[in-house]
Specification:
Length: about 70
């Protein structure tokens, strides 16, 4: 599962670079679409621990932020 994940990440990075650097609108839209699809596929190919962290961090964000201590 590591090889498809890495290939997919490379495709997503290239698509993001194309989206940022190109002047053609059709190419920008197509590259952005490919980048979004590739990032969702990366979630599919990611190991369980990475998926768990992606879900747990937003849920536990308030508990992870440092609390303001009274002076």
């Amino acid at each position: 599962m590591l090889a498809p994940l890495l290939i997919n990440l490379v495709v997503a990075c290239i698509a993001v670079c194309l989206t940022i650097n190109t002047k053609e609108e059709i190419v920008k839209v197509a590259a952005a679409f490919i980048a979004v699809i590739s990032l969702f596929l990366c979630l599919f190919f990611a190991p369980w621990l990475v998926k768990l962290l992606i879900v747990a961090i937003p849920l536990l964000w308030d508990k992870l932020k440092p609390q303001n201590l009274p002076e």
